[in-house]
Amino acid sequence: MFKSLLLSKSDAGFSAAVTDTDEAQLPAGDVLVQVDYSTLNYKDGLAITNKGPVVRSWPMVAGIDGAGTVLESTHVGWKAGDRFVHNGWGVGETRWGLMAERARLQGDWLVKLPAAFSARQAMAIGTAGYTAMLSVLALEQHGVKPGDGEVLVTGATGGVGSVAVALLGKLGFTVVAATGKASEEAYLKQLGASSVMDRAELSAPGKPLQKERWAAVVDAVGSHTLANACAQTRYGGVVTACGLAQGADFPATVMPFILRGVTLAGIDSVMAPLARRRQAWERLARDLDAAKLESMVEEVPLARAAEKAADLISGKVRGRIVVKI
To answer: The pTM is what?
Structure first.
C-alpha cells in the first residue's frame, strides 16, 4: 500500500483525499517509480478543486509532475536507481498521476534528472518552469535577442511567469513583469524584472492595433491580455501563448499579424517531443539561478496539497508550490 491524493466523482459528489492505495491498482507501464516530490501547476489546481474539466477518467490520482527514483524497469533506457523527472503526457488527466508515493509510467515519457538539480528543485521548476523554458526557446528560435527591446511577461507572479522572469533576466533581456499584485514588485525585480506594470493595463478590451512596445511577449494568461499583448508587439515581434489564467478566449483581430508581421507561437508542454523536453531541461540546468528558484518556492506535505490547490485557483499563491511526497 502507498499514499496517494485520490480524486473521486460519483452521485455523492466530488472528493479529493489522501488515501491508502494498493500497488496492484496502478496502470500498466514499463517503469515503476518512487516519487519524492510533486508540485502544483495551474492544471493540477483545476483538477484537485474540480474547477475545470481536466480529469477525464475516475477515480484519478492527481499530479501531472513528479521527480524521484526508478524502482523497477523493463524499459531499455531506465534501470533501478536512476533519477527521473516527469512532466505531462496526460498523467493526472487520463492516467494515474504522481501525487503518490508510487507511480507506474512509460519509460519513453521520462527525462533523466539533470545532475544540477535535486528532485525538490526539479519540482520547484515543474511543468510551469519547463513551459517557461519552452517559451524562451521559442523566442530564441524566432531570433529574439537581448537588446532587441522590452519583453513582456504576463501573470508574472505565477509559476510560468516567475520562472520566465528569472530566465529572461539572467539571459540579459529587459523584462517588464505584468501582475495584479502591486505588493510583489520587490519579488519580481529580485527575480530579474527591470520594471513592473499593473495587469489592469492589459486585461480590458483594447484596440486591434496599439502603440508598438514589446519586442516579445511570454503570455500565460490568454483572453484580452493576450489580445492586447499582440496589439502592442513591435513589427516582427514574437508572442508565445501557453496559458489561460484569464480565459481560453482570444478576442483579437488579424491586424498585428498581417500589418506588423507579428508571430503568435503556441507552447504545448503536455505532448512535447522527448528531444525538446531534454533540451529544455538542459537549458534550465544552465540558465536558471538556483537561489532565485528557491525564492519562488513554498513546500507543503501531501496532506496539504488540496488546500494549496484551492489557494492557487483563488490567486493566493506566488511562485511555485512543491509537494513533498
So the answer is: 0.94
